[in-house]
Amino acid sequence: MKDTDNKIPIYKINSKEQILEYYTNWTNDNQYNKDMIDWNYIAPSNAVKIFTNHTNNLSQKILDAGCGTGLVGKELKNLGFKNIIGVDFSQDMLDLVPNNIYEKLDLVDLNNSLDYKDNEFDSIICVGTFTYGHVKANALDEFIRITNSNGLICFSINEGIYKKNNFDKKIQELENNKKWEILELEKTSYIVNKDVDAWFCIAKKN
Predict the structure, then answer these.
(1) Angle between helix 16-26 and 31-38 (nearest 10)
(2) pLDDT tens digits, 125-139
(3) Cα–Cα distance between 195 and 191 in angstroms, integer?
(4) How far apart are the C-alpha atoms of 146 and 148, rounded to whole Å?
(5) Contact status, residue 13 vs residue 19, Cβ threshold 8 Å
(6) Domain boundaries in the chain?
(7) Which fold has domain 9-205?
(8) Which of 18, 21, 130, 206 is 20 to 30 A from 28 via CA?
């Protein structure tokens, strides 16, 4: 069994306060974005590839949930997607998002109920957020609530917490309860130079 728990220092942090403080330090001098390049963090491009296997509607309203510094948004924007809303729980991360990627940026904790209407988004993409000490599997219930019928929900789950935090069970439970249909679910590379993989899932809301 691979020891993913100790690959990156933030994986050892559990409290929201400590994580926010970590991101405050990590964003100094743009260090976070530099590390993502050095570590070959390919989750954003992997997720967007999976997403675009199933949709080419460039005008749809997309929620980038846990958008961080906008790495997924950049990938989407480069492909011509226009109507993207970004949310994250770290203002320091949001402050590093380049202009002209998102229509709007909101400071949001995805572990809480979301202040969006039912069926508000055509699709949700959530990358790098289901990881150690971050967002719990129950957030998927809210994602389903705020996504249109037949809308897509595309997300990554760090391999180290996939079973430990019951994401495997939650994904199956939502399919069993006819809340969504799984279109793809596969384990693939996530942070190449740290030898961390993730499960990538895309589901269509029923």
Answers:
(1) 90
(2) 999 988 876 789 999
(3) 6
(4) 7
(5) yes
(6) 9-205
(7) Rossmann fold (3.40.50)
(8) 130
Burial degree of 133 (CB within 10 A; 0-12, 13-18, 19+): middle
**Residue for token pair 């728990």:** 5
Higher pLDDT, 3 or 32: 32
Per the structure block, which two tokens stand in for 134?
């971050």
pTM above 0.90? yes
Comparing 45-49, 54-58, 118-122, 157-161, the range with the smallest average pLDDT is: 157-161
| Amino acid occupying residue 67 | C
In the chain, what are the helix, strand and coil shares in percent, each to the nearest 5?
35, 30, 35
CB 189 within 8 A of CB 138: no
* CB burial of residue 44 (10 Å; 0-12, 13-18, 19+): buried
Tokens in use for 12? 């050892």
Contact (Cβ atoms closer than 8 angstroms) between residue 46 and residue 184: no
